Amino acid sequence: MDTFFISHGAPSMSIDETVPARHFLKSWREKVLPEKPKAILVVSAHWETSNPSVNVIDGPNSTIYDFYGFPKPMYQLKYPAPGAPALAKRVVGLLKGAGLGPIKEDKARGLDHGAWVPLMFMYPDSDIPVCQLSVVARKDATYHYEMGRALAPLRDEGVLIMGSGSATHNLGAVGPDGGPIPSWALGFDTWLTEALLDGRYEDVKRYEEKAPYAKKAHPYPEHFHPLHVALGAAGDDAKAELIHHSWTNQSLSYSSYRFNKA
């Protein structure tokens, strides 16, 4: 099973049919991954904890509306995918085995919008077991890459490992759709794609010093670290592929990537 990083953009994609990435995600099973995963592990930017945490849910996942001031229909959407307690326990064991503990098991938390918004288009039947893994506050990209490396065995077990964040994420610098893309957003996004396709993964791990406009594109790293987990899970010799590229809000990149073994 290949690993993926999906730029999920604004939660309004859930109801806004004009967002190009929405149509990309709806074509997922036909054009990207026809093979149905046995389970899905989502590393979402919208769950940030002091230590790695996994939701261990026996029964359907609840739908978390972790956004404010959006249209009422968004708060009526549901994605009751079954939990994946066996996978969650496996994740705990792999992370502990790699010395990345302690690991918290959260038995109440459902799926945040970084998980359920893309998944509702990718797998609309909500019939695949899903669990989430948090990103870890105050840990760097290399740490998250090592988290991914620890999770690599899941790929051979039919588990889809998906990082969900954003290629660029500076909500204080967004603008109207259709406006010119700022040089900082275009510069970082272009650098990221070139670095990944060239296999310069050490540079991607050290993006804060290697990438142009890194701090402008990601004032905080939580939307970028899911990429490092997905990349680490694919392995050092993985090949990267750009599978989608679009923009909304002038500076919000939806660049999404597939990582597979050479």
Provide a brief overview of the structure:
This protein is an alpha/beta fold and 262 residues long.
Description:
With 262 residues, the chain is α/β, with parallel strands linked by helices. The chain is built from ten helices and ten strands. It has helices at 20-26, 28-32, 85-97, 113-122, 141-151, 183-197, 201-205, 207-210, 214-217, 225-234; strands at residues 3-7, 39-49, 53-55, 104-106, 130-136, 159-165, 238-244, 247-248, 252-253, 256-261. The strands form three sheets. Strands 5-2-6-1-10-7 form a six-stranded mixed beta sheet, sandwiched between helices. Strands 3-4 form a two-stranded parallel ribbon. A two-stranded antiparallel ribbon has the order 8-9. α1 crosses α4. It is globular. The mean pLDDT is 96.
| Rg, alpha carbons | 17 Å
Q: Span from first to last CA?
A: 13 Å
Number of helices: 10
Assess the beta-strand content as a share of residues.
15-25%
Low-confidence stretches: none
The level of helicity is 25-40%
Structural class: alpha/beta
User: Which of globular, elongated, flat, extended, rod-shaped describes the shape?
Assistant: globular
Order of strands across the widest beta sheet?
5-2-6-1-10-7
The helix/strand order is: EHHEEHEHEHEHHHHHEEEE
User: How confident is the prediction overall: mean pLDDT?
Assistant: 96
Number of strands: 10
Q: How would you sum up the major sheet? A: 6 strands, mixed
InterPro entries: Extradiol_dOase_DODA, Xdiol_dOase_suB
Protein name: 4,5-DOPA dioxygenase extradiol-like protein
Domain Extradiol ring-cleavage dioxygenase class III enzyme subunit B: 3-259
Cofactor: Zn(2+)
